[in-house]
Amino acid sequence: MIDLSTYRPKGDKRNTAFFEENLPRVYERRAASGIDGLVGQMAAIVVQVDHGHAIEAMAELALMGPYRFRECWLSETHRIYLQAAAAGQPQLILLEPLTTEYDDEVTRWNTMYPLSAKRPNARYIGEIYNCGDCGAVRGILESQNIRFVYPGEITNSFYALEHLTFTFLSDYTYNRVGYVDVPLDSLAPLDLGDRVLLDDEPLEVLEQAARKHELHGLAGKVLGVDHLATRVLAGEREDALLEYLTMVPYYFWGAYNIAEMNSSTNVTRHPSVEDEKLSPARVFTANNTPSYLNSLVNLPMPTEEFVRNFGRRMHHLAYEVADGEVSGVKNVDFVVEILRDLGVPFLAEVVGECTDQPNLKQIFSRSSPHTLLITEYVQRCLGYEGFFTRDNVAALTEAAGHEERYAHGQVFD
Q1: Strand partners, 313
Q2: Tell me: the pLDDT tens digits for 235-287?
Q3: What span, in angstroms and rounded, lies between the C-alpha atoms of 295 and 298?
């Protein structure tokens, strides 16, 4: 357990006096108000896809990682799918609108940006955290000006239930935070609507993807979600961090400059878990120089280009790969080789080296055509502590930047 009163964040990213003054105040208020006692570990990850994309998206998840379909429920507006990984790890809840005409604030945010408009309802929604009592959490955080959704105020009733409550979309990240006070081994306690049994054809698609994962030796190597990374604007980095730390019992682990990519990587973690997969780290990446000033320094800015093209949103979901090797090939290289053979496209080669010193090997996939999320695979060799090396992050950020470019007039980002 981390002692937040004495912990000193890692890294070389300089924060403002505003951030340094308010970070301990956020911790102190959280403890005094009861949030630290009421809110626990991450219970689920919520992703929405466009109508007609759910089965393909779940098959992709089953092939590329440990998530397996468990059940489906029907609400007035959505099919809601539950996927489970290993015991104790967050579930994955997939929302699929019932029609192509479905429209809510997610649709409107997506259609504001040139490269997300093509998938108007595809979006990472946010995380759900276990809590002792949803009403108590909501009452405490509302007194701190955190806004929550209420029944009758929103198109998708999933966001405002008796045992599951969500915040508004954050002004800084466009993500939500949810709280649940019942176990999510099944969605039945949430009273979403009617249970739906999938037909044989979609079930076979999901089962075939899971079989491929097993038969090609990926089981036991891709272990679970390690971290989730959101990209925000340069001037909103500190606000996004402090807002998130107001709402969940995480701490600011540290931040590092990636000078050659004109960005910083900022990590928050749960203080009482030793295995990140039980409550994945939340990472926030932002430019150092905002786009309107960047021509003065003429540096790459793939992080802010992503925000300009897709909006503030989740950029990638990272899986931990077990340390080890297969026939002299590191596990992450083996995983990537198999997935490439099965048709999964990647942005570049694996970066990083694992020799006789602790280190990381990492790689980004191309973004999913269904969720718009990139998948990262990361192998920590010889007990490496941390989430990145500067060289690795620079290479990954550059590779993603080539994928996420948008040409408009005389501006090419």
Answers
A1: 231
A2: 999 999 999 999 999 999 999 998 888 999 999 999 999 999 999 999 999 99
A3: 5
State residue 413's pLDDT score. 46
Q: Give strand ranges (E) for 89-183.
A: 91-97, 123-131, 164-166, 176-180
Distance set, CA 231 to CA 58, 264, 285, 309 (Å): 24, 10, 5, 11
Buried b (16+ CB within 10 A) or exposed e, 178-207: bbbbbebeebebbebbeeeebeeebeebbe
Give 223: exposed, middle or buried? Use CB within 10 Å, 0-12, 13-18, 19+.
Answer: buried
What pLDDT was estimated at residue 219? 96
The model's pTM is 0.94
Say how many C-beta atoms besides its own lie within 10 A of residue 37's C-beta: 13
User: What tokens does 215 get?
Assistant: 């038969």
Q: What percent of the chain has pLDDT over 90?
A: 84
Taking a C-beta distance cutoff of 8 angstroms, is the pair 184, 43 a contact?
Answer: yes
pLDDT at 244: 98
Residue pair 158/176 in contact by the 8 Å Cβ criterion: no
Burial track 283-294 (b if 16+ CB lie within 10 A, e otherwise): bbbbbbbebeeb
pLDDT for 408: 47
Residue 410's pLDDT band (cuts 50, 70, 90) = very low
Q: Give the C-alpha separation, 361 to 340, whole Å.
A: 17
Rounded (5°) CA angle 305-310-316? 90
The CA–CA distances, whole Å, from 4 to 11, 36, 216, 234, 272 equal 16, 12, 44, 26, 11
Tokens of 351: 């970066």
86-111 residues labelled b (16+ CB within 10 A) or e (exposed) = eeebbbbbbbbbeeeebeeebbebbb
> Residue 376 region, left (φ>0) first, then alpha (ψ -120 to 50), else beta?
beta
Task: Give the sign of the dihedral formed by CA 360, CA 361, CA 367, CA 372.
Answer: negative
Cα–Cα distances in angstroms (integers) from residue 58 to residues 94, 168, 218, 268, 374, in the given order: 8, 26, 17, 28, 15
